[in-house]
Every structure is written in C-alpha cells, then in structure tokens.
Design a protein that fits this description.
This protein is α/β, with parallel strands linked by helices and 325 residues long. The chain folds into 2 domains: 127 residues, 2-Layer Sandwich (ornithine cyclodeaminase, domain 1), CATH 3.30.1780.10; 181 residues, NAD(P)-binding Rossmann-like Domain (Rossmann fold), CATH 3.40.50.720. Helices cover 38% and strands 24% of the residues. The chain is built from 11 helices and 16 strands. The longest helix has 19 residues.
Length: 325
Amino acid sequence: MPLLLSRDDVTQILQMPDCMDVVEKAFAELANGTAVLPLRIPITPPDGLALYMPAYLKEMGALACKVVSVYKDNPTKHKLPTTIGTVLLQNAETGQVICIMDGGYLTAVRTGAVSGVATKYMAREDDGQVAGIFGAGVQAKMQLWAVAVARKLSKAMVYDISSEAADRFVAEMSAKLGMEVVKVGSAEELLVADIICTATSSPTPLFDGKKVREGTHINGIGSHTPNARELDTTIVKRSRFVADSTEACLKEAGDLMIPIEEGALDESHIYADLGEIVLGTKPGRTGDDEITLFKSNGLAIQDTATAKLVYDRACESGIGTDVDL
C-alpha cells in the first residue's frame, strides 16, 4: 500500500536547508562508491521524450526512480504541462514501491540544493556577498534560495529577457528571503556579482567570460545537452571546473563538450567531481582570487535522496494518502 504525495504535499514538506543536507550526503556516497547511478535512460516516442532516472544510495537506504516526460504539444493538445515528473520510491530491503510522489517541485528544489552545496564548498567565505541570477523562472528562484542558505548575502540581482518575469522574481524572492533583490537591465550588470547562477533556456553563452571578476563563483545550471551552452569557452578555461559527474559532463554538457570539440581544452580540465570536494579529498577553492565553476547536469542521486527525505517527513507528519494497488 504505497503512499501517494501530491505536489502540494511535497511543497508543504520540502525545505531547502534539509534538501541541501541530504543532497550533500548523496554526493559523498557517490564519491565513496556506495551509490549506484546509471546514466539516465531516454526513450523517444513519436511526440515526445521519456527519461528514466534510477539510483540507489546504500548508506541512506534510498532506492528510487524518477520518470520524466517532455511533450511539447501537451499544453495545446491535452491541457497538460510540457514536462511531467513522478518519483517512485522503493523499500531498499524488499523492492516494494512505498511511495509515489509528484516530481516537479522536488526536481526544482533538489537542483537548487546542489548549487547550494557547491556554493558552500567553492564560493568565497566572506559575508555580505552579492548573488547574480540569470533567469527569473522557477529554477532561478531555487538557485537564489539555495545560495542564500549557503552564504549570508547582502543583495541579489536578477536579469531576464522578460522584464515582467524579473519583476515577479523581485517581488517574490525579496519577500521570501527578507533581503534586497533588484532587477538589472543587462547581462553585463550581473557580472559584478560574487556568486553567479545561470538558470536559463538559452542555447548560446549569456555573457563574455573575459569580463567575469576574479574570485567569482559560478553555478551553471540551465544547459544540459551537447549542443547548448550558457557559458562561453573563455570562462570555462579561466575557471576551476568541478562537475556533478565527470561522465555526465562529457556526454551531456555543451558548456564543456563544445570547448573540447573546439580544441580549446581537454578532459583534464575537469578538476574534480563535487563528491570529491564534499569529502575533502580536493579543495573547492585555493584562494580568494580564483574563479570557480560548478556544472550541474542533474543526477538521479539527488532525486532519490530528496524523495527519501520527503517520504520520511510525510510519514512523521501524517501527510499523504495511502492507496491500495
């Protein structure tokens, strides 16, 4: 009899600091060799894309698979979202599916959470830093939330090609975080920030890498296909490059794959995987003048760890509906 958790249930339960904690532990397991993480499995029906993302975390006792579909005609033909995500959580001892939960909000929070973990280990440690957010959508909001957990910010700035979206971002996030959030009129204005997050759907670089200040930390989130990139070759070359997964970056991340294809750098430019930084086997930063860059593709260990957290909290709080299959 699995527990059914709606989007509202997950939203009620899941908070960024808790999610960052379990995501950090998941990356430690990946580096320690106690995680099983196959690459996501794609299937392409005629009208869309289906992705299957399984993972197992031995130490956390978490076993799950996220099913994501992307059907561009859903809104017009079926009055459904373009992207739909659902997570199946299993009992790691028996294999029984113990929870079926909406994966939309969970995915947004866990993606923000990994940037928060990277910021914790890779950004400068001084208080009063400024965050610069490219994009004003759901994921951009999660990026700022996570960075604000990882560092004591003095201000945040946002840039989006939609001025109205940026205005909504400012209103929502300033109220949520109790801090100054301002809209800027150009991408270049964001480059004065100490911590930059790119969370857009742009297939081409967002800014000139030569203009990024020394000491900046960057979380690259939006691009996740071989032919798209938010970051130009210059900034990738200038940065200490940390991957969520080297394997995933070399197969999915245009931010890295395109510079390699250009001959501007090779695979050795990847300094470490995030799990190595979490474990302390390699430092996330060696000086305040260093530019650090974390590239996130999104890994199933994040979904699995977060789903286990949500399920445990739901059971403690009596949230959700038991269903008889």
